[in-house]
Design a protein that fits this description.
With 311 residues, the protein is an alpha/beta fold. It has one domain: TIM Barrel. Strands 1-2-3-4-5-6-7-8 form an eight-stranded parallel sheet. The model has no long low-confidence stretch (mean pLDDT 98). Bound molecules: hypoxanthine and zinc ion (ZN). Hypoxanthine binds next to helix 3. GO terms for molecular function: hydrolase activity. It catalyses: adenine + H2O + H(+) = hypoxanthine + NH4(+).
């Protein structure tokens, strides 16, 4: 099936780290992996919730050391995205997850910056970077890191908020989002993935976000749904992620079709494709088959993604 051209607006570049590349980079950097072999690593891609995934996601990042590693990671993803007819990709990355391991910001930015520069000619995908802050790290650290990114002229178009959601309400991060706004950066945040619908409202009202990542739990709050429909706030939904992290029991129960019918501005994305069983095309075919989406539904979803992109 040829998919309509689409924008990938919710993908964590570190979540595109495939087991094979983990082994390749470990070898290149002389790192001993705590797994018996590739199959042992693959067998660990079973999750109970967001935190059980995050534990493996952060552990595997240790193989990313040099600027070249980050470039290779991002270009491998962008080549794969091109096969799914992605024409624009706004890549999340987690600067703090690298800083805490002793990898300099300049290394991360040099590596990812080179990839987005080379992408149009090498993969055909236009790419941009969004720095995400970890809600389970101190809010003051986020402000410090964003200040450094701004000072170094890092090639980012915006900021986001990710990692463990429960008990870390968006309002804790008002200062870093205000700083981003002052510098003309776009603002997005994960909200309503595992956290309550109220976090979506807070992300809009306190952080001033232009898109909500996930947002599926908005359905628990009819007044919020009405507002999201009225304002056509983009919700970047990641179906395979929701099932693999057990926010949704089976794909047949995914609320995406209901969200479309309600008139919400939803689009389909892949989140952490190496961990959740597939890229954008895999997500599209999985929901299409499970929910019986029509060609018109798929066209709407792809069009929503392009309209919600920051370009
Ligand atoms: N949710 C929250 N934080 C994340 C995710 C996710 O799916 N992937 C990487 N960081
Ligand atoms: Zn995400």
């Amino acid at each position: 099936m040829t998919l309509s051209p689409a924008a990938e607006l919710h993908v964590h570049i570190e979540g595109t780290l495939e087991p094979e590349l983990i082994y390749e980079l470990a070898e290149r950097n002389g790192i001993d992996l705590p797994y018996a072999d590739l199959d042992d690593l693959r067998a660990r891609y079973e999750f109970d919730d967001l935190q059980s995934f995050l534990d493996l996601y952060y552990a595997n990042m240790q193989v990313l050391v040099t600027a070249q590693d980050f470039t290779d990671l991002a270009l491998a993803y962008l080549h794969r995205a091109a096969q799914a007819n992605v024409v624009r990709a706004e890549l999340f990355f987690d600067p703090q997850a690298h800083l805490v391991r002793g990898v300099e910001l300049s290394t991360v930015m040099e590596g990812l910056g080179a990839a987005i520069k080379r992408s149009p000619s090498e993969t055909g995908v236009e790419a941009a970077l969004i720095a995400c802050f970890l809600r389970d790290r101190p809010p003051a650290e986020a402000v410090e890191v964003l200040s450094e990114l701004i000072a170094m002229g890092a090639p980012i178009i915006g900021i986001g908020l990710d990692s463990a959601e429960r008990d870390y309400p968006p309002r804790l991060f008002k200062e870093v989002f205000d700083l981003a706004a002052e510098h003309g950066l776009h603002r997005v945040a994960h909200a309503g993935e595992e956290g309550p619908a109220d976090y979506i409202r807070e992300a809009l009202d306190v952080l001033g976000v232009e898109r909500v990542d996930h947002g599926v739990r908005c359905l628990e709050d009819p007044d919020l749904v009405e507002r999201l429909v009225r304002d056509q706030v983009p919700l970047t939904v990641c179906p395979l992620s929701n099932v693999r992290l057990k926010g949704v029991a089976r794909m047949e129960e995914h609320p995406l079709k209901r969200m479309l019918e309600l008139g919400l501005n939803v689009s389909i994305h892949s989140d952490d494709p190496a961990y959740f069983g597939g890229y954008l095309d895999d997500n599209v075919t999985a929901v299409r088959d499970a929910l019986g989406l029509t060609p018109e539904d798929l066209e709407t979803l792809a069009a929503n993604s392009l309209a919600s992109a920051f370009r």
